[in-house]
Amino acid sequence: MNEYTVKGIAIDVEGNLPVVTLESSDGKLLPIWIGGPEAYSIGLALKEYEPPRPMTHDLIVSIIQGFKSKLKRVVISGLSEGTFYALLHFEQNGELIVIDARPSDSIAIALRTKAPIFVEDSIPIFEPDDPKTAVLKERLKEIRPEDIGF
Amino acid sequence: MNEYTVKGIAIDVEGNLPVVTLESSDGKLLPIWIGGPEAYSIGLALKEYEPPRPMTHDLIVSIIQGFKSKLKRVVISGLSEGTFYALLHFEQNGELIVIDARPSDSIAIALRTKAPIFVEDSIPIFEPDDPKTAVLKERLKEIRPEDIGF
User: Fold this and answer.
1) Tens digits of per-residue pLDDT, B115-150?
2) Which residues, in sequence order, are CB contacts of A7 under 8 Å at separation 6+?
3) How far apart are CA A113 and CA A48, in angstroms?
4) Residues of chain A positioned with their CB less than 8 A from the CB of B93
């Protein structure tokens, strides 16, 4: 299991779908195709934008804090039939609470709580020197949250 | 403070904005203008649609349950400069935990947990026999979540 950080949000020009890209310190990439609202929320968190009223993922952070819990880590845990899975590892009163979630929500919360993101070894990633990685990069057009907008 | 139920989601034809309408048992109406993703989420909950993977508000319900807490009620608590405010009242180990939220998120969670929704008396509502209520109803065009879509 390796730690990844959020490289950014992008649009996959094939299919016009939002993507969040995770990157390891040695340049491995993991693109995850996500929904528009979640991409927007991740984009706002990357810009450290503080909205006047809590957006949905800000509310989740309020709830975690209200329950005196802490998000210890996010684990991108699996890939099945094109769908990525994630787990949120919370700590509350010394107890570990693990909750199933989509990677998009998990990443949106991790960015807001500065929790680390790990990727299970079983998940196929893009190696820096693999020709497929160059093809992937051509497909992904980096965007700002305001390019999505609701 | 009176209890309201969710009448449905609609589009306000003036401005093309999503609206969730709350209704009291004696026919008072409270329209709240909300975001598209939240209207979609409320619409799915009204249809009791169970998605294959947890949507963001389903994740909030998982977190509440994971923390062995319960949403006791939602209170639409205020209106200031056109913005509605809400409070989530949670119970955990006999303790009341109150968290500030937008009405849209609050309603999306209330529907999924069957928590009651209350509206503070200070909030202006639409009386059944007020001519303004008929005007409001003309502005609101009921929609299904698939009419929003992402």
Assistant:
1) 999 999 999 999 999 999 999 999 998 888 777 765
2) A21, A22, A23, A29
3) 11
4) none
> pTM of the prediction?
0.95
ipTM topping 0.90: yes
Q: At what angle do helices A56-66 and A36-46 cross, to 10 degrees?
A: 70
**Architecture in CATH for domain B2-147:** Roll (3.10)
DSSP code, position A67: T
Q: Give the span between the Cα atoms of A145 and A44, in whole angstroms.
A: 6
Q: Do A150 and B56 touch (CB under 8 A)?
A: no
Residues of chain A that touch chain B, judged by Cβ-Cβ distance less than 8 Å: 35-38, 52-57, 59-60, 62-64, 66-67, 69, 83, 88, 90, 92, 97, 99-102, 105, 150
CA distance linking residue A146 with residue B84, whole number of Å: 24
